[in-house]
Structure formats: C-alpha cells, structure tokens
Amino acid sequence: MKKNDSKMGQIDFILFATIMILVAIGVVMVYSASSYYAAFKFNDPEYFLKKQLMWAVVGSIFMVVAIKIDYHIIKKYTGIIMLITMALLLIVLAFPAVNGAKRWIPLGFANIQPSEIAKYTVVLFMAKSLERKGEKVKEFFKGICPYLLVSGFYAGLVLLGSNLSIAAVIMIVTVIILFAVGAKISHLFAIGSSLVAAVGALTILEPYRLARLMNFRDPFADSQGKGYQLVQSLLALGSGGVTGAGIGQSRQKCLYIPEPHTDFIFAIIGEELGLIGCAFIMLLFVIFVWRGIKTAVTSKDMYGTILGIGITSVIAIQAVINIAVVTGSMPVTGVPLPFISYGGSALLFNMVAMGVLLNLSRQTANKS
C-alpha cells in the first residue's frame, strides 16, 4: 500500500511542536549541564553541545524524510531490519565494555547503540504480525507466546550487554501493545508477574544491581559510596526550589553528579529551572503521549494503530523510568530521558521514529 505524498493530510502540529520543544530544551540543557565537565575533561565547554546539536540537526533531517514516506513501506523491510538489529546486538559484544557494559559500537566519528534500534524493531515486528493475528491474540500459546519469544530474544541480546533497563523497556512495551490489541488481562497479569520475578532474580544475581536496590531504600546511609549519585540528584532537585537557580547556575554539575548531561540531566533541570521547569517538561511528555495515542487510535488500519501505540509507549516508558530514578522513586538504572539526555544514536533513532509517528498522523481516519 503506497500513497502519494501530495494525497496525505497535514501532520499533527501539536505533536510536532511538542517533539521539537523537547529537542530544543535537550540541546540547551545538555550544554548547561555539561559545560563544566566538558571544560574539565576536554578543555572545551562546548564539546557536548556541538555533538548534541549536530545530532539534533541530523535527526531532524531524517525525521522530515520519514514524515514524507508512507509508513506502510516499512512493513516490507521489517524482516531485514530485524536481521540487522540482531547482527548489531551480537557485534556490540565484541567490543570492550565501557563502565561495565557493552552497549556501543565505535564507528570513529560516532558511537552507535544497537539497543536503541532494538526497542523500535520489536514494535515494527509486532505491528506487522498482530495486524494479521486478529482474535487469535486472545489465545495464550498461539496469540501471546510468539511475541514474548521474539521480544524476549531481543531483550536477551540487549541483556548480554549488561543493559537490564532497556531490556525491561522492550518487555514492558510488548505487554502494553498486547493489552492494546485485546489480549486477556489474566494472561497479561501472569506475564507481568513473571517479568517482575525475572527482573528481581537478575537484580539479586548481579552484585552491582543488588547494591543499587539496597541503596535505593536509604541512599543517605552510604552517601559517599553506592548512594552518592542519587543523593547528589536529590540535593540538586531540592536546591532548585520552585523557580530554580537559573540556566547555567547549577552547582551539582560541577563534578558532583557524574556525567550530569546523561541519565541524570533531569536533576540539573530541577536545580536550574526548579519545580516549574520540571513540571513543564513532564507536561510536554503528557501532551506527547496524548497526541501519540490520539494518532494511533485514529489510524486508518490496525498496522498504524499498533505502530503508533508502540512508538508512543517506548518514549513514555523511558520518560517515566528516568524521572522516577532521578527523583528517587525507583532504583537507579541507565535509562536516558528521551530527546533531552545526551546521546547521538538515541536522539537519531528517536527522531526517525517520530517521523514515522508524524507520517501516521497525516493518514488518520478523519483525514482524506
């Protein structure tokens, strides 16, 4: 099924504007959060700004291209994308670990993180397959197990690189999609319970994960050791108050929070922009989810509906987990804040996915 670009409707402007505002905030806050660290380590306060801005521009270009290409075309290449993703997840294991995890493939000019592709690959597979599944999705072995096996396979490959957080995101998104297409609640409850048990077991069996869990209960008990990062995050959020100290005025970014421009950038936002800034960003994510779900449910076909729900869920789950971690609501884990945390490959693949979602918004059922 192909459509001429001229026959499509207009994109969802609210969704588009929300995405671009988040990306713009990300570029500004990456610069603010990283300037001191970059000056100390690379003798260039703008080191991370230049990279993030470059990827934001490249990502925007890819997003515009994706907006103009009929999302149905992706269906033809789903199998190839799955094979490429699998190969990349295996290739990454051949490279040395960074901070105890094998997550990046160095390309010289940039690093690629295959797990960022895996999240969307699973969504593409489920959208293509579930479109044909129909009422069979209510059956456990024929309807649910195949998707658990495929998603579990990719999550397992991600887990081999010591990335439990993204593996969990993949499985959570899988359950959300299955729920959206009509799988039985009893089946999903059993799956959810099993996933919680699996995550618990993987946490207990890995000493550093267990240490994170124990320190989450009372990070101040070891404020200079295992609980250090969370304690510094809470201090940053607390010192920001309602209005914040102002852009660039964070103290915790001055080598107190390790690499403050990455997973804990929300803490710097809280310190510099205060409760108002944090609430605004959370509001933007709420608007994104609202428009993403609206786009999905008004799609002309089941493929578009599942694709929209999956893409929206990937961003939403990551945002919830990241903010929960930074605010001390759940144990520390390595999930970046979408569009805002520093990371070239994450921003690029998220922007491509946004292009697909925006293209879907051009072809909703209430448009000609």
UniProtKB/TrEMBL annotation:
State where it is primarily located: membrane
Query: What keywords is this UniProt entry annotated with?
Result: Cell cycle, Cell division, Cell membrane, Cell shape, Cell wall biogenesis/degradation, Glycosyltransferase, Membrane, Peptidoglycan synthesis, Transferase, Transmembrane, Transmembrane helix
Subcellular localization(s) per the UniProt record: Cell membrane
Q: Where are the transmembrane segments?
A: 12-33, 53-71, 78-98, 164-181, 188-205, 264-290, 302-327, 339-360
Q: Return the Pfam families for the record.
A: FTSW_RODA_SPOVE
The EC category is transferase
E.C. numbers: 2.4.99.28
State the membrane topology.
Multi-pass membrane protein
Pathway, per Swiss-Prot/TrEMBL? Cell wall biogenesis; peptidoglycan biosynthesis
**What's its catalytic activity?**
[GlcNAc-(1->4)-Mur2Ac(oyl-L-Ala-gamma-D-Glu-L-Lys-D-Ala-D-Ala)](n)-di-trans,octa-cis-undecaprenyl diphosphate + beta-D-GlcNAc-(1->4)-Mur2Ac(oyl-L-Ala-gamma-D-Glu-L-Lys-D-Ala-D-Ala)-di-trans,octa-cis-undecaprenyl diphosphate = [GlcNAc-(1->4)-Mur2Ac(oyl-L-Ala-gamma-D-Glu-L-Lys-D-Ala-D-Ala)](n+1)-di-trans,octa-cis-undecaprenyl diphosphate + di-trans,octa-cis-undecaprenyl diphosphate + H(+)
Q: What does this protein do?
A: Peptidoglycan polymerase that is essential for cell division.
- Family, per entry: Belongs to the SEDS family. FtsW subfamily.
The molecule here is called Probable peptidoglycan glycosyltransferase FtsW
Annotated source species: Clostridium frigoris
